[in-house]
């Protein structure tokens, strides 16, 4: 296997993202270099090929500062991949003509160190990967640590919403607790989801680990500017200070048109909420005075239908009425099935929410009762065409992944879908684009004359269901308050999968 292939495999497995030397030098020179010369110890806990340690060497060389055994002995790195360690030593020998102390650049997992290094300053770039995307063996090895360091209340959470928790969050808490000296500081390149996403990283934002407080003093947001290759998510740099209680607002800097602009950030409602970022006092004042939208409990925002990876089985772009209460569906693979129209609903597509009078371009097959539960086997078998069609795909449907869908599958309902409830079948939907947008623009969808209530597509769409048009209009009027756009924009999730998901919208609402 070539070195490039080895690196690519490692990157995918452990979320390794390598920092450009130019950026490592900027961070080191601004924050740590002089302190290091004056006797401070430095640790990169996930060191990769040692770019942050090299930054110290490079800056010293450029400043004609002699590298001695004494100052080299205060630089430390820990790295899991031995090949990367070998590359570091080869490069240091050939470029800087020094013998870096072998014992100072260790092979190992920072999460499992028998003899912890305690440093005055930490600097680095932890892995960028969610728990759910890790190798299965490594998941099993580390899952107890998410509980130990307070990122989840129990290990079951890692199988549900908190499966999207960043491993970077775990590493940060571990090293702030175990590898940073009292009142020490740390700077890390990070995915900004740690600060700005709902749910998965919320417990990190307690800013406390095993009784030790820490604070975030400054965040640098690259704002989509390309620093790392092949990384699509939002990322930046955060400065941490150990043994200091978190205070708000946090200094927040955004790179726009090649210049840094100063902002400030704070959670709007609860201290563990995602950070809202303010560019002026007027917006901050409006949001501070925001009164939550009051709704009845059954009007909670919902996501669309989730087929759990089986869209091609349940979505149809070709369909027609062929008799009273019968619909002919043609799948993407060319299969044709005739089913009761009570199981067929219009599915939103990109044009649905922008059209004045949307017409179904796709439909979705939902073999569920109006109470949200999947139809039973006896009822399914009575629908011979439907049963025959689903039976052809039984193996695929039974092998779908996910804790919640497997609850249904294990009960024998292998044709079940997720995201289905009584709310799915109410006639009116106030629906909006929850994924990848930058403008919050809800729309009332009235039932289609042939196929009934519109259905959203997984996390792409979110909605609130209403039984009457009057209810729908009342909710719509509340959702078109301009301050909602201000709030969503302040979270800086424009264009991402977290733009206006139900969990985010619920923070603006009070249910009675």
Keyword list:
512 residues, alpha/beta, Rossmann fold, 3 domains, eleven-stranded mixed β-sheet, four-stranded antiparallel β-sheet, 18 helices, 23 strands, 30% helix, disordered N terminus
Structure overview:
The protein has three domains: 125 residues, Vaccinia Virus protein VP39 (Rossmann fold, 3-Layer(aba) Sandwich), CATH 3.40.50.150; 137 residues, no CATH class; 210 residues, no CATH class. The strands form five sheets. Strands 1, 2, 3, 4, 5, 6, 7, 8, 9, 10 and 11 form an eleven-stranded mixed sheet that branches. Strands 13-22-20-21 form a four-stranded antiparallel sheet. A three-stranded antiparallel sheet has the order 14-19-18. The chain contains 18 helices and 23 strands. A hairpin with a 2-residue loop joins β6 and β7. 30% of the residues lie in helices and 23% in strands. It has 512 residues and is α/β, with parallel strands linked by helices. The N terminus is likely disordered. The relative contact order is 0.09.
**What is the alpha-carbon Rg in Å?**
27 Å
Mean pLDDT: 90
Which segments are poorly predicted (pLDDT under 50) over 5 or more consecutive residues? 1-15
| Gross morphology | elongated
Domains, number: 3
Count of runs of 4 or more consecutive helical residues: 18
Give the DSSP E fraction (strand runs of 2 or more residues). 15-25%
Measured as a percent range, the helix fraction is: 25-40%
Q: What composes the largest sheet?
A: 11 strands, mixed
Q: Give the distance, in angstroms, between the N- and C-terminal Cα atoms.
A: 61 Å
Strand tally? 23
Helix/strand/pairing class, anyone? alpha/beta
């Amino acid at each position: 296997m070539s070195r490039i292939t080895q690196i690519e495999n490692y990157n995918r497995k452990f979320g390794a993202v390598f920092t450009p030397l130019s950026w490592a030098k900027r961070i080191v020179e601004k924050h740590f270099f002089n302190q290091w010369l004056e006797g401070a110890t430095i640790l990169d806990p996930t060191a990769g090929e040692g770019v942050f340690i090299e930054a110290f060497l490079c800056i010293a060389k450029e400043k004609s500062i002699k590298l001695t055994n004494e100052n080299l002995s205060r630089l430390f790195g820990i790295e899991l991949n031995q090949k990367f360690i070998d590359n570091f030593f080869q490069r240091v020998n050939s470029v800087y003509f020094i013998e870096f102390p072998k014992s100072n650049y260790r092979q190992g997992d920072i999460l499992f160190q028998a003899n912890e290094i305690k440093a005055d300053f930490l600097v680095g770039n932890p892995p960028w990967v969610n728990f759910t995307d890790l190798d299965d063996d490594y998941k099993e090895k580390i899952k107890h640590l998410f509980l130990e360091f307070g990122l989840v209340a129990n290990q079951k959470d890692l199988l549900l919403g908190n499966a999207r928790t960043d491993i970077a969050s775990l590493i940060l808490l571990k090293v702030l607790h175990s590898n940073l000296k009292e009142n020490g500081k740390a700077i890390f390149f990070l995915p900004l989801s740690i600060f700005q996403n709902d749910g998965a990283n919320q417990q990190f934002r307690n800013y406390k680990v095993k009784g030790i407080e820490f604070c975030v003093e400054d965040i640098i947001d690259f704002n989509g500017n390309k620093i790392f290759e092949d990384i699509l998510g939002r990322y930046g740099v955060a400065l941490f200070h150990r043994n200091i209680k978190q205070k708000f607002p946090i200094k927040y800097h955004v790179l726009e048109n090649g210049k840094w602009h100063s902002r400030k950030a704070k959670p709007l409602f609860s201290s563990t909420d995602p950070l809202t970022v303010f560019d002026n006092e007027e917006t901050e004042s409006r949001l501070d005075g925001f009164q939550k939208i009051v709704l009845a409990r059954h009007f909670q925002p919902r996501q669309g239908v989730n087929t759990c990876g089986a869209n091609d089985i349940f979505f149809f772009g070709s369909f027609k009425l062929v008799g009273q209460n019968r619909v002919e569906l043609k799948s993407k693979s060319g299969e044709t099935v005739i089913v009761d129209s009570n199981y067929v609903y219009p599915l939103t597509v990109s044009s649905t929410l922008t059209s004045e009078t949307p017409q179904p371009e796709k439909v979705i097959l939902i073999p569920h009762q109006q109470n949200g539960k999947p139809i039973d086997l006896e009822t399914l078998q009575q629908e011979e065409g439907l049963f025959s069609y689903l039976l052809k795909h039984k193996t695929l449907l039974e092998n779908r992944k996910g804790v919640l869908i497997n609850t249904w599958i294990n009960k024998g309902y292998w044709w079940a879908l997720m995201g289905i409830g009584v709310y799915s079948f109410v006639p009116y939907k106030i629906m909006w684009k929850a994924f990848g947008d930058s403008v919050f623009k809800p729309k009332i969808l009235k039932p289609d004359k042939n196929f009934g209530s519109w259905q959203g597509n997984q996390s792409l769409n979110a909605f609130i269901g209403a039984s009457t048009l009057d209810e729908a209009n009342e909710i719509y009027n509340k959702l078109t308050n301009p301050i909602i756009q201000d709030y969503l924009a302040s979270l800086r999730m424009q264009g991402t999968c977290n733009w206006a998901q139900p969990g985010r919208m619920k923070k603006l609402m009070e249910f009675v």
